[in-house]
Amino acid sequence: MLARRIIPCLDVRDGKVVKGVQFRNHEIIGDIVPLAQQYAKAGADELVFYDITASSDARVVDKSWVERIAQVIDIPFCVAGGIKSVEDAGKILAMGADKISINSPALANPELITELHDAYGQQCIVIGIDSHFNDQTGKYEVYQFTGDETRTQQTSWETADWVEEVQRRGAGEIVLNCMNQDGVRQGYDLKQLSAIRSICDVPLIASGGAGKIHHFADVFKEADVDGALAASVFHKGIIEIAELKTYLHKETIPMRTV
Amino acid sequence: MAQNIVIIDTGCANISSVKFALERLGVAVTVSDDPATIKASDKAFLPGVGSAQNAMASIAQKGLIETIQQLTQPTLGVCLGMQLMTQLSHESGLHNAEHVDCLGLIPGTVEKMSVGKLRLPHMGWNTVNPSNNELFKGISHGTYFYFVHGYAVPVYEHTLASCEYGMAFSAAIHKDNFYGVQFHPERSGDAGAQLLENFVSL
């Protein structure tokens, strides 16, 4: 039976793993390679590395760490941030990443999704979506350039429409980051994730809000997501992956145990 | 004696990860698209990700179709590499071909998965049930391997291990010196390392 996935997310800035609260005030957590190894050993099913400065800085970012990770890691990993072209994606995949995740560049040029699909196949194209609930309009809205608070801006897309669009263009997986929940550890946005699940035919990964062990059971049971991504609860040692997986297994959620 | 292991450079993207996985086992590998180097190897790997159409076009363009068909040493196809070992794939891409002719090393065809309400691609860790064979030596029923694919080979007489996702399909296939695995052993933790070690020891 296909297991649900537990996915630690490592935000990367200048080769270091960092974490902020609601995308702000980044603090350094540690070096990438030992942290990645530690998570793989602990039973993580997959890792995501977000180069959070890349998209918003418009600079060429040193991605040599991708190859260093690929050399030591024996679980799949995805690289996000600053991938703006088919050529950029090709370099990351050639260095050994299994998937690439596109966020702001896909919003700037949706055709990029189709081009990536045709060049490398649907299986390695992940679309990251930063979705913010606007309590004035009552709508979920897509934001871009969220790696840099000064450049973060709302797009014209409502989240559900963008989810449909990226699937039409060949996305192989969607990571939905619920911005209102990010970093505050009050639980995943079950309402939004359930709504998106009903229109999402590719794997859907929940992101933003994990704080307690039962939040993971909630999101798998209520929103039927394929994976749950989290950062601070793992980095700060609030939740141990082995303990989490044992708990979820008891809750009858299929889990790979190591 | 150190073995001469070659990863066939198909021009696809997962070559580095297969190479690194073998290096983690302490095995030296060469990546090559030179027919003489490939023929002279003790073991060969046929990696592949992306679409069958692009991969076959790349192999044809490199002039490697006959080289691969004539191999007699143990050869392991990984993911799309496994699918390319069959006779044909229905993953025809966007160019309106009805199917793509593959290498024909192992009988069988690659079909689009039909999984009802489940999501495609089939992505993540799933349990594999091997028959009793050398490639899966020491790997028990229900061991998790990492999969990413939307097309699959049905279960048939050349199936070496099966998997279920809305339907039963071949997780591994075999004929003569040719072996193929649908999952990614290079990304399947200890179980994947065990399988690669088994293959290298054949």
Overview of this protein structure:
The complex is a heterodimer of chains A (258) and B (202). Chain A has 258 residues and is an alpha/beta fold. Chain A has one domain (5-250): Aldolase class I (TIM Barrel, Alpha-Beta Barrel), CATH 3.20.20.70. Chain A contains 11 helices and 12 strands. Chain A has an 8-stranded parallel β-barrel, surrounded by 6 helices. The relative contact order of chain A is 0.15. The mean pLDDT of chain A is 91. Chain B has 202 residues and is α/β, with parallel strands linked by helices. In chain B, 23% of the residues lie in helices and 30% in strands. Chain B contains 6 helices and 13 strands. Chain B has helices at 15-24, 35-39, 52-61, 65-69, 80-84, 189-200, and strands at 5-8, 29-32, 43-46, 75-78, 88-89, 100-101, 109-112, 122-130, 143-149, 151-152, 159-164, 168-175, 178-181. In chain B, β1 (5-8), α1 (15-24) and β2 form a beta-alpha-beta unit. Chain B is globular. Classes of the chains: A alpha/beta (258), B alpha/beta (202). The A-B interface holds A 1-5, 40, 45-46, 67, 70-72, 74-76, 90, 93-96, 98, 118-124, 172-173, 200-204, 226-227, 256, 258 and B 13-17, 20-21, 23-24, 49-51, 54, 80, 93-94, 118-127, 144, 146, 148-150, 164-165, 184, 186-190, 192-193.
